[in-house]
Design brief:
The complex is a heterodimer. By secondary structure, chain A is mainly β. Chain A has no helices and eleven strands. In chain A, strands 2, 4, 5, 9, 10 and 11 form a six-stranded mixed sheet that branches. By secondary structure, chain B is mostly beta strands. Helix content of chain B is 0%, strand content 52%. The chains are: A mainly beta, B mainly beta. Chains A and B meet through strand 4, strand 5, strand 9 and strand 10 of A and strand 5 and strand 10 of B.
Chain lengths: 111, 113
């Protein structure tokens, strides 16, 4: 059974610093891995989707990498801004078309 | 513009009552999903459907029911058999499962009084 872990659960950084968010998964036979952002009381917004055949995806200040052999994905957010404050979740899609979510990392970017 | 619409946004229910949460998408996606989110427990899959008139139980289906009569609609009924229904419910959809990107609605918060 796929298990997805995100450590740390919370992170606080000063504005302008680069953010590094970690995601670990146990089943390397994933179809893809997706990163989401969630603001309080809101739904999830898709940030990046990495297929199993890809090593990374980029969108603006965001870059996500995928290493199936080590069971890790990393989301990098360059030059963080207070507007980046949110909870970030990763989720791996494995057999049975099931998406397994990590517990999320709550990020606070201080002005 | 395209998206996923969940309603109502907030819902209060008395114990013993069934309630139905609506989820509509105009993205022409084949697959639709219902998740439940509780503080400290992350998102858990309740039901999912890959095509019309077909759906499968997720990890926590007990006390819930769904239907998929139309491609764009996937309503969730929270029955009185659900022991702890107070939660944030999220509907999602994707095209071309399992490879497609998952998109979410804004969620429905159910509170049992």
């Amino acid at each position: 059974k796929q298990e997805v872990t995100q450590i740390p659960a919370a992170l606080s950084v000063p504005e302008g610093e680069n953010l590094v968010l970690n995601c670990s998964f146990t089943d390397s036979a994933i179809y893809n891995l997706q990163w989401f952002r969630q603001d309080p009381g809101k739904g999830l917004t898709s940030l990046l989707l990495i297929q199993s055949s890809q090593r990374e995806q980029t969108s603006g200040r965001l870059n996500a990498s995928l290493d199936k052999s080590s069971g890790r994905s990393t989301l990098y957010i360059a030059a963080s801004q207070p507007g980046d404050s949110a909870t970030y979740l990763c989720a791996g899609k494995a057999a049975g078309n099931k998406l397994t979510f990590g517990g999320g990392t709550r990020v606070l970017v201080k002005p | 513009d395209g998206g996923i619409t969940q309603s109502p946004k907030y819902l209060f229910r008395k114990e013993g009552q069934n309630v139905t949460l609506s989820c509509e998408q105009n993205l022409n996606h084949d697959a639709m999903y219902w998740y439940r989110q509780d503080p400290g427990q992350g998102l858990r899959l309740i039901y999912y459907s890959q095509i019309v008139n077909d759906f499968q139980k997720g990890d926590i289906a007990e006390g819930y029911s769904v239907s998929r009569e139309k491609k764009e609609s996937f309503p969730l009924t929270v029955t009185s058999a659900q022991k702890n229904p107070t939660a944030f419910y999220l509907c999602a959809s994707s095209i071309d499962p399992p490879y497609g990107e998952l998109f979410f609605g804004e969620g429905s918060r159910l509170t049992v009084l």
